[in-house]
Amino acid sequence: MEERGVSNSISDSRSAILLHTTAEDHRIARMAAVALGLAIIEGAIPSPLPGVKPGLANIVTLIVLSRYGWRVAAWVSLLRVLAGSLLFGNFLAPGFFLSLSGTLLSLFALGMAMHLPGRWFGPVSQSIIAAFAHIAGQMIVVYLWLIPQAGIAYLIPVFAAAALVFGTVNGAIAASFLGNETGACNDVAGLKV
């Protein structure tokens, strides 16, 4: 009788897939979902030039970077790129590789920028650095794979200007959010003292 009960519990455990998740896994999933939602909204905004987007999801990456560190920010960004490509139906298409290359280079740049003095380099400068790295990653893939001609260099000033503008705006939004959060925490801490 006991053997039968044991065999049933074994067969039951074989038929069910159990995932053990942590609070950090849930946090990463929530932040990636928010970033993906912003990417969907961004996709609905018409672009005057192909490849020029505001990068709204990068606001989430900057906030996650500031609050939880580079590793969690990397997970959020990479999950957003993967889920976005699956959702938009361009997984393994050129758009996916452009997004992935930009994301990887911007994550690398953010990892390096974290070591700059925090007194002078905050979310706005990190966002600008990441935006320029993202454009550079995309331009490298375009040149090496899609359009191997020197003529694409004429587009660099346009993309650089877009990176500067959108990087500044996204960084300011992230800094504002982080500043409001810190101020609220300080107010609450002040009440408790």
Strand-helix topology:
Layout: H1 2-15, H2 23-44, H3 57-68, H4 70-88, H5 94-113, H6 123-146, H7 156-192
Helix pairs in contact: 2-3, 2-4, 3-4, 3-7, 4-5, 5-6, 6-7
Short overview:
With 193 residues, the chain is mostly helical. It is built from 7 helices and no strands. The protein starts with a helix and ends with a helix.
State the distance separating the first and last CA atoms: 63 Å
Please estimate the helix content: over 70%
Shape: globular
Mean pLDDT: 84
User: Can you write the helix and strand succession as a string?
Assistant: HHHHHHH
Kindly give the count of domains. Answer: 1
Helical element count? 7
Main sheet makeup: none
Secondary structure class reads mainly alpha
The top level CATH class name = Mainly Alpha
What is the number of strand segments? 0
Q: Remind me, CATH topology?
A: Arp2/3 complex 21 kDa subunit ARPC3
Strand composition percent:
under 5%
Explain what you see.
The chain has 193 residues and is mostly helical. The protein has one domain: Arp2/3 complex 21 kDa subunit ARPC3, CATH 1.10.1760. The chain is 77% helix and 0% strand. The chain has seven helices and no strands. It has helices spanning 2-15, 23-44, 57-68, 70-88, 94-113, 123-146, 156-192. The longest helix is centred in the C-terminal third of the chain and has 37 residues, at 156-192. The radius of gyration is 21 Å and the shape is globular. It starts with a helix and ends with a helix. The model is unreliable at 1-11 and 183-193 (pLDDT under 50).
